[in-house]
Amino acid sequence: MINAIIKGVFKIVISLVNVLLTPINALILTFIPSLSNVFALIRNFFTTCFTYIGWVIDMSFIETGTISLMIAFLTFKLTAPLAINTVKLALKWYNSLKL
Amino acid sequence: MRYFLRQYWRYIAMALAFATFNFLINACQVHAETNYNQSLNININETSNSADRILWNDANHTQKAFANAGRGYLVGIILAYKYSENTSFTLPTLYSVNARTDAGYSTCEISSLANNSESSYDDMKASVYGFKCDLTMSSNGLISVSANFAPAPNNTFTIESYRLTFNNNLQAQEVQYEQYIYDYMQNYLYPRLNTLTTTNASILSNLQWIYSYLQNYIYVAQQSTITQLQDINTKLNELMQQNQVCNYIDKNRVVIQGKYLRTDGTEGPNDNAGITDYIRITKSTEINVAESISSGSLYLCFYDKNKTLISCLSEINLTGNINIPNNAVFVRFSIRTTTNKPQFELCDTSQNITNQQNQELNDNITSDDTSGGNSQANDFFDNFDSGSTGSLMDIVSLPLEFLDSLNNTCQPIQITIPYFDETYNLPCLRAYLNGKFPNIVTLITLLINGILCYRILKAFVDLVNKLKDPNNNDIEVMDL
Fold it and tell me: Among B251, B344, B467, B469, which one is least packed by beta carbons within 10 Å?
């Protein structure tokens, strides 16, 4: 259940970032196609590495429950502070303007 | 021995399981031989978890002798169908065709000729596949072909296979079917003939026979007001018209032996004659009396779309080009069976090939100059571009993909040592060690995971405390 939610969050984040980066990607493809190839090489390298992660984790004796906890924590750390601190910042500005 | 069993019992168990599995598969498979133009009924049991197989050879129910060494093509159509008592059954899917020659097995290309397997018909349900085998013979030898179907449990269905012909490479000029080369173009069988002046009627009649058979079959389906099977019609029309030739009517086309057609359409006895099946004709069809036979017991009758008799012609009316009634859709011929020579020819006038085109076709086919192909192949590799492009998104999303990949299960890694050409398997270490030192592995796992969980929970509590501070609203770069 937690994994499914986390994967859903990943997809939403990836989609949003993709929308933001679309014009930049179009510029790179048009004017710097070689850079685009480099991006592809980097992606392929890491994709190859990621295929062995299961083997490495197995070797490190880490349980799947621990991994889920780790992923949940990282997701929380990457999303909650941004939202909460943004609200805090907005309240701070509001108080400053009110004075 | 005890040590050996203790060390390798898993491998022995796996080997036994594999052997048992193979035995069960073989036990469930239906092995049967069928003539290439005969149907075969196959019943697939619910427990069958593997492919059912049909094998076929030539018309004499023996393996077909390949006339010469070399390379050639074997092309055919496989029709799987069932007359529908109900619509709950599933037709089998052809997933492979294999041909065997003295040079070994060859996997053949297959393609669906009409994707109608999910449709139901009042009369029948069918799936039609074409196949092409690229064969190499080291010497004069034999060919047998097998087709493997995915199981469709609890169903009895009929499979018919039609082997059109094979050629024996370009230099094999003495073989029986040297005039014909069959090629495969996308989703339909494409006959490519290198001469249009052949008198080898047997192959043409085979092709025409299959064509007319499927035409009838399409007609049956159309009576159910279902039109999806028109797809076969279209493709077979393409098949026939791409390089249209006159298709000859000879004794190979006879389906009723020892009878002839009277001028009133009835059948009368004649030991030296035979009657063909209903052959579909179109408005562009031209029927001629073959030059080689100018007289004899020749008759033909025209029928409408319901196969109702329109009119018949006797030999005294048969000269050269024959007038076809406007509403004629089918024709039946009554011909002599005492000769191998063609007695009628059906030509399609819609797409005649000129002598010049014919010569060009011959030149192309008989040319053994492959420099153009080599040049293009070299260019392809010299200018090879994988077409793989990346974007910023690929880089930005890498951390997320990393997190996602953490859930991957362990797969043994295969490592090939360069220069020694030896492959080693690196097993999943935890499972391997767990089998040897289970207690130690449990202890290490507990320690590592305990420490990690403690650190994570501590970091979580620290983070929450930090967020609770009303004066702390710093947004870290990592958060962004």
Answer: B469
Please give the span between the terminal C-alpha atoms of chain A, in angstroms, as a whole number: 47
Least confident of B194-198, B391-395, B424-428, B435-439: B194-198
Q: Does A16 touch chain B (CB under 8 A)?
A: no
What is the Cα–Cα distance from B44 to B28, expressed in whole angstroms? 8
* Cα R_g (chain B), whole angstroms: 33
CA distance A30 to chain B (A): 12
pLDDT at position B451 is 93
So what's the pLDDT on residue B446?
A: 92
pLDDT score for B118 = 36
Cβ neighbours of residue A43 closer than 8 Å, sequence gap 6 or more: B390, B394, B395, B398
Mutation choice for B interface testing from A11, A35, A58, A89 by most B CBs within 10 A: A58
The three-state DSSP-derived secondary structure of A7-43 is HHHHHHHHHHHHHHHHHHHHHHHHHCHHHHHHHHHHH
| Tens digits of residue pLDDT in B255-270 | 888 888 888 888 888 8
Asked whether the beta carbons of B216 and B280 are under 8 A apart, the reply is yes
Of B103, B278, B229, B252, nearest to B176 by C-alpha is: B252
Q: Give the C-alpha distances (Å, rounded to integers) separating A28 from A42, A45, B107, B388, B436.
A: 16, 20, 44, 14, 54
Cβ contact A82–B475 (<8 Å) = yes
How far is it, in rounded angstroms, from Cα B278 to Cα B329?
A: 9
Three-class SS state of A63: coil
Residues in B 359-388 with any Cβ partner in A closer than 8 A: 388
Which has the closest alpha carbon to B158: B89, B59, B219?
B89
Put simply, whether the predicted model's pTM sits higher than 0.80 gets the answer no
Q: Report how many helices (DSSP H) and strands (DSSP E) chain A contains, helices first.
A: 4, 0
Residues of B in contact with A39 (CB under 8 A): 389-392, 394-395
Structure tokens at B299: 């008759």
Measured N-to-C along each axis, helices A2-31 and A64-98 cross at an angle, to the nearest 10 degrees, of 70
Measured CA to CA, the distance from residue B37 to residue B165 in angstroms comes to 12
Give the Cα separation of B162 and B147 in Å (integer).
Answer: 12
